[in-house]
Amino acid sequence: MISEKSAFAYQEPEKQVISRSSDECVVALCDQWYLNYAEPKWKEQAKICFSQLNCYSGEAGNNFIKSIDELHEHACSRSYGLGSKLPWDEQYLIESLSDSTIYMSYYTVSHLLQGDVYGSIPGSLLIRPDELSDEMWDYVFDLNTSYPGICRISKEKLDVMRREFSFWYPVDLRVSGKDLIPNHLTYYLFNHVSAWPDKQTHKCMWPRAIRANGHVLLNNEKMSKHTGNFMTLSDGVDRFSADGMRLALASAGDTLEDANFIIEMADAGLLKLHTLLEWIKEFLTYNTSLRTGDYNFVDKIFITEINNVLQTIEQQYEKMLYCEVAKYSLHELLTYRDKYKEQCLIYGGMHRELVERFIKIQTIVFSPICPHICERVWQLTGNTGSVLNARWPELIPFEVGASQDSWLAAGTFLAETVHRMRVKMKTLVETKSKKGSAAAADLPGFCEVFIAERYPPWQTKIVDVMRKCFNRETNSFPSNQVISSLVQNELGENKKSMPFVQRLKEKVLEGGSISCIESKVIFSEKDILSLANEYICYALDLDKLWVKDVSLAPEKTQQDCVPLNPFITFHYTSPSPTLNIYFKNPQPCAGYFSEYIPLVQEDPVEHVIARLRRRLNISRDLTITLVSYTDPILQSRRIPELDTNYTNDPLYRVLSEDTVFLINGDQLIASDNDRRQSAGTDLIYLIT
Asked: Is the pTM of this model over 0.70?
């Protein structure tokens, strides 16, 4: 019927349309100019332009592809309103979505042509509007390499404009709303490839990146003056300060989804900034009392965590994911700092140089989000100039030959293991409490941790199968049916295989990488837990922690224990021989209490001192020395003399750091370099 001209295509809105001025909109068929975006060569060039474009989001990229494919004729003119006139039919104006698609090219030279925003004052080149021509613009915009034959502007002035354009173009980044992807931003691509059509000569003038974003919600709701759910930038700055507002906006969201500005989070962020500034002031006041010298294992873990976060922040800045930047540059770094601070309570406090590096790095990487507070910290820490001019921080140097990846993995393993121990201890206490056990009010004082450096042979084969069938491009595994078939080819029927496969899949999903199920760990779990033995005992209030190889565990435990997942078991009574020893302090006017403390078979002096320090709450700034009696039966009954020199007195023996306590029935023996001596049931501790 349409071909016979007895009918024509007709479209109308699906419902009533009301304009912003509250007027009812009426559809009318009028004379109109169209741009034919369906023209094949033009569309092909737009696709080439898009293929070289960074749109920062897969969802945005899919929307662009769909828009380019579906775009056809578009009405580009209107008969009233504001706008530029159509060059070939000046009774019409260019409609707003089609206008301003290459206006950024004019921005490169506008300061040379206009002395003010209105254009009423000539710019620095003193060029009048009536001197402009199409030929002149072709030369300035690199569409013609020859100076126009008829031109009222000197070549020197045009060359200045041409250099400005060449310096600033192409557009490195265009930022706009997601609602403009199907129209204005797509027209922006089409019109650029139309204005600079030669792929070889002018391809470098095509846009390089477009960052589309969503709208802003306030407390999970659309902003509306009518409902009162509304806030202006000025209101936000008055309430949260400039930095507080910037942090809240950065944290509101990054993707095409609408950003959600939550007032409670803004308040919490402002409080966190204040707390951070106060902590830095406190550090600068007392930093001379912090530890110096060589780095210990806690320092090394902290260094690798800082370096890893620093690299992550740089990547997020490049992707313009400012919510992730705020997360890592503020929250993650402070989380690592707090964990480091807690761990260092056992090892002489934080390292001064390392904390200074931490503050400097955080100040620089966080300055684009909260420049004012970072500028204040920059000045407080004695730096010159502005933090905004500071170079991106370098990674903290690490010891030669050491693997930062292994220390980073070790730090993660230690934190996760301590967390698992806390959860298991809590579950144990709650279970005993429900059963009405008498010991429910107490925490278990002893813990055994069994570690496995490798998977058992049958699990190793499954790990190898999982690694081979993992698709690194899609970051996924094949179906369970396929995996089951591959596993059966290796092991035959085994009812434990698929549950283990499922655990491995979950582990990879949580860790985001197949490296999470390496058949061999890149660090020694036993060494890390042994180094952190004192910290773990302090954190969990344990009297003794044993780190044992899984080969010493019961058979069932050996089956459940795999690399990076140690088997943890708590005890209310020690699984090894234990003897309660009476510790007393004879120093005059010292005010330290006497206490019965359990000693375990093969307890080293350093563990006993740590236990004593924890039980009696003795400051780590003080040194504890243990002393035994040379005749424990007689001398423990004597009244001590106040001026006794325990180091030189033959009645006493100062125990060295190499001393290990052995238990033989009800006898305590102090062993030091193959020298053994009975220590009785009483020991002296001295505080200096």
From this structure: yes
Calpha distance 418→442 (Å, rounded) = 19
- Both tokens of 44, joined, read 């092909």
Confidence of residue 521 (pLDDT cuts 50, 70, 90): confident
Take residue 335 and report the two structure tokens written for it.
């989380």
- Residues with Cβ within 8 Å of residue 445, at least 6 apart in sequence: 541, 542, 543, 544, 571, 572, 574, 598
What are the pLDDT digits (tens) for 314-331?
999 999 999 999 999 999
Count CB neighbours of 442 within 10 A.
11
Distance, CA of 344 to CA of 340 (rounded, Å): 6
> Cβ atoms within 10 A of the Cβ of 530, count?
12
Q: Which one-letter DSSP state was computed for residue 528?
A: H
Which residues are within 8 A (CB) of 1 and not within 5 positions of it... i.e. 6 or more apart?
7
% helix, strand, coil for the chain, step of 5: 45, 15, 40
The per-residue pLDDT for range 77-91, each reduced to its tens digit, is 888 888 888 888 988
Residue 491 has pLDDT above 80, yes or no: no
What is the chain's length? 688
Q: Which spans in 399-554 are helix H?
A: 404-435, 457-469, 480-491, 497-511, 525-531, 533-540
Tokens 């039919």 correspond to: 89
Are 51 and 73 in contact by the 8 Å Cβ rule? The answer is: no
pLDDT cut 90: percent of the chain above it: 41
